[in-house]
Amino acid sequence: MVIDGNPKLSNDFWLSEFSCPAVINGEVRNDLDRHVLFDMKLINLIQKVRDFYERPIAGITGYRSIEYNALIPGADPNSYHIRGKAVDFHIYGVPMIDLYNKCIKLGFTGVGIYDTWIHADVGDTIRRWDNRTHTSKYEKIGLTHITWVEPLELKAKASFTRTGKQCSLRYSNFINGQYYWWKPADDKIYTIGWQFSEGEPTHDNFMQDDYEYVGLYPRKRGTFIVYKDGTVEVKNMANSEMKKIRDSIRFCVQGFNLFPLDLEAEGYTNISSLTRICNRVAIMFHKEKGVGIVYRPFTSAKRMQQTAINLGCEFAIGLDSGRTANVKMNGKKIHVNNELLSNIIFWR
Asked: Beta strands 290-299 and 144-149: pairing type?
């Protein structure tokens, strides 16, 4: 509709803030009447964002006509902006990741994070995406290779059988993930335990409560969880506990908990699991730096626990180590080989 006056849509928003200029022959015409479509569900939700932060919403882009949308580089031709169901915005002084998480909590169905703005919409399906530029930070301290990653950037893949070298051709940054077993009956390898990526399970055998594999089932296992709101939890979790929270999980992997380090309680009855010196990988959490993905050669489980402490991390799990340890960080092959893998963790 053509804007007629400028009525207030909510306590803090006016109709004109969501309007779109006219476009004639591919030229934006600010001298002509502006047009607008809007969904009140969108207005009500963005008002909740405003109420929570008690700060003005800046940089608002709401409705876009088909012609105006076509002028936006990279814009989806079926964008919800065209239907008045989407808004792009930021708030001065509030980190993008905080806005992203808050929009998810408040009930926007589509939420995307960019370097300088958030996209939020009330579309038909739940969607999440991260279009920020590269934000992970790699460093090497002594023998230890570390990449610090935002929790929401973590992804995983399973239900495949590739070597570390093959994975290194496809991914700029990856590390082998959790344990797996070889099943003689069909001559295939299967990922053990729970693994989620972008809110969905990466494989379907994590629900096998009764399958006994070297005593791991039905023990609690070290579990690293990133929830859909971006918060992180690391602790020993049983299958029954995981089932209760599965709808809130965005990313998770399982291994053995480093805090406390009690491998026998998790079903690892061989003492060499604790003392064996090998190439080891782990995933940790630092309250300020984010997720630490760590690779260290010539290391025992106990020494990896000390590494976590040295890095200032109080929450960590050890992942599959030894021959399967494969690592590519910062685009560089740290350690890759021809060992078959069933699952990996990767990031931008």
From this structure: antiparallel
10 Å CB burial of residue 149 (0-12, 13-18, 19+) is: buried
pTM of the complete model = 0.66
Q: What is the pLDDT of residue 212?
A: 44
Q: Could you tell me which residues come within 8 angstroms of residue 62 by beta carbon, excluding any fewer than 6 positions away?
A: 17, 18, 19, 20, 36, 38, 42, 81, 84, 86, 87
CB count within 10 Å of CB 165 equals 13
User: Has residue 242 got a pLDDT over 50?
Assistant: yes
pLDDT of 152 > 90? The answer is no
- Taking only the tens place, the pLDDT of each residue in 205-223 is 665 543 544 445 567 889 9
Say how many CA atoms lie within 13 Å of 87 toward its Cβ. Answer: 30
C-alpha span between 81 and 6 (Å, rounded): 20
The token pair that represents 200 in the structure block:
């969905």
**Rounded (10°) angle between helices 96-106 and 40-53:** 130
CB of 298 closer than 8 Å to CB of 147 = no
Rounded Cα gap, residues 193 and 239, in angstroms: 8
Give the position of tokens 């003689």.
184
Residues paired with residue 227 on neighbouring β-strands, in sequence order: 249
Kindly state the tokens that stand for 142: 């002594």
User: What domains does the chain contain, in order, with CATH numbers?
Assistant: 15-130 (3.30.1380.10), 137-346 (no CATH)
Which phi and psi (to 5°) does residue 130 adopt? -125, 105
Token digits of residue 103: 């929009």
Distances from the Cα of 34 to the Cαs of 1, 18, 135, 140, 256, in angstroms? 9, 10, 38, 55, 59
CA triplet 202, 329, 189: central angle to 5 degrees? 35
